[in-house]
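Next up, a specimen:

>
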Amino acid sequence: MNPAELGELEAFRDFYAAAPPELGAGMKAIGGALCLRLEPLSSVTMFNRALGLGIEEPATDERLEAALGFLDGVQAYVTVAPEAEPSDLGERLTTRGLAPDRGWTKFSRSTAEPPQASTRLRVERDERGDAFAEAATRGFEMPDLFLDWLRRLPGRDGWHCFVAFDGDAPAAAGALFVTGKVGWVGIGATVPKHRGKGGQSALLAARIQAAAEAGCEVLVTETGAPVDGQPNGSYRNIVRAGFEPQYVRPNYLSATAAS
């Protein structure tokens, strides 16, 4: 599996495995794909998705129906990576009522020469998870149900969680998940009042350094593809940190949302 797909898939597999049982976070492996759903946020595609469909094993009609059945009732994305089989997987999704939606740009870079970033914020590794959970939850403007979930990550194998502080206040967060020689960079969020202070650039630099120390050979991440040719702030930060775009991965929006 392409490292750009593998890193994201394995990070979300472990993220959902860490979910408090009462949240209703479900996952199911289908032919090498990973299907995710989160009942409390049933309309948020980030948490209701099928990843890796058709990569390790072809997406047969049976597997496709199983994935869509698992996602029934939530607003979900089905991602289609370039190596997914069969080659007409996107067309087969549209015939089932899914609609093409904004794609995600997948990036990668080596762990050599971590960038330098200038910020007045103080970047620290969070071993307990409280500050990381607070900054990420407030930064994404998500409900408090994520606080306990995110607090659990620093204590799990493979996770490295960092926080940028403005004084004593958690201002921004970012995570690294290591699987083998691949590091996935994600959960990057900045509390609104602390944006524009260089926190994400500093957190990217810290995670690249941590990935090198953990023995990673390649780092991967993703963000929304540019709209009308205009990259977003996340896209610019990622490129500034030395990541290079690899491809735009299409997303197909579930029939529940498209109808």
The helical segments are 3-17, 61-70, 89-95, 130-140, 145-151, 199-213, 233-240, 255-258.
